[in-house]
Amino acid sequence: MNQYETVFILTPVLSDDQMKETVAKFRKILTDNGAEILNEEDWGLKKLAYQIEKKTSGFYHLIEFKAEPNVIKTLETGYRRDEKVIRFITVKLDKYAAEYAEKRRNKNTKKEEA
Asked: Is the pTM of this model over 0.85?
C-alpha cells in the first residue's frame, strides 16, 4: 500500500451540511475500496489565487490515506463526476514526504491538546 494525500476544493455556495455530506461521500469511496484514512483536515473557506468557474473562493479539504494504486482512479473519477468539486489533486508521498506529514500531524495534535 502506498501513502497518498489528496486536496480538493468545493464550490463556495454550499451549505455546511452539503459540504460535510460531500466530504463524507469521498471518505466512503476511499474506505469502500480498502483505503486506510490516516489524517483529515478541513481548511475551511479560502480565497483562490485566480478565478475558477467565476468563483473567487472555495472550501479546501485534505485527506491523507494509505491505499492501493487502483483506488486513485476510482477517487478521481468521483471528483470529476461531482459538480461541487472545483479542483482536486492527489499526490503519492515518498518516504520523506510521509515522514514530514507525520511530523505535521503530531504537531497539530499537540496544539489541539494544549
From this structure: yes
